[in-house]
Amino acid sequence: MDLMQMWSEMSFLVKVLMFILIFMSMWSFGVSIERYYAFSQARKQSKLYAPQVAKLLKEGRSKDAIVVSQSKQYQYSHLAKVVLAGLQEYQFQQEAGGTIEHGDMVDTVRRAIQRATALTANDLKKGIPALATIGATAPFVGLLGTTLGVINAFHGIAASGSGGLGAISGGISEALVGTALGLVVAIPAVWLYNYFAGRLEYLNVEMANSSSELVDYFIKKS
Fold this sequence. Notes:
This protein is mostly helical. Helices cover 87% and strands 0% of the residues. The longest helix is centred in the last third of the chain and has 56 residues, at 165-220. The chain starts with a helix and ends with a helix.
């Protein structure tokens, strides 16, 4: 049986399930392409950003560091977003004046950095849980197609009054296609999820280290 004949003999519900699996596959690869680009840009821009802003902070040019952090050149940099939040909060506290002690100021800056880190981490994670969902559910969607195909096979037997191969071949084909397509969609999704989860963990570690170094910088500045 060729693919067109097999498709024509599928029931409506099985065709709907095939379309769902195809959509899940397209969604999976769409998310993967977008996340790969975002992660690559984040790492590339952060490698350029980190030494530049470190040099400015060593020279005490925090305002220039804020300008650099706001540059569109580093719009994908996860480090720039975290450092910018800390620098802006510190600059705000400095300009506001008042009687706030330095220790309390550092605590305020630390909380601002933690908020920015959480928001940035959540933004980096965007779309990745969908890969896990697709990887977990696609085999079951395929299994449902298998079940419906087997049901159609038994209907073929009942209609023909015979258990010959011709009576059940269409339903068995549906069953095999549903199982195969479900696995074809699920396996790459699981691989891609694990890959991006590893890269996300790496970026989170980088943000944590940068946050700690920035807080230490403000403490030493007292």
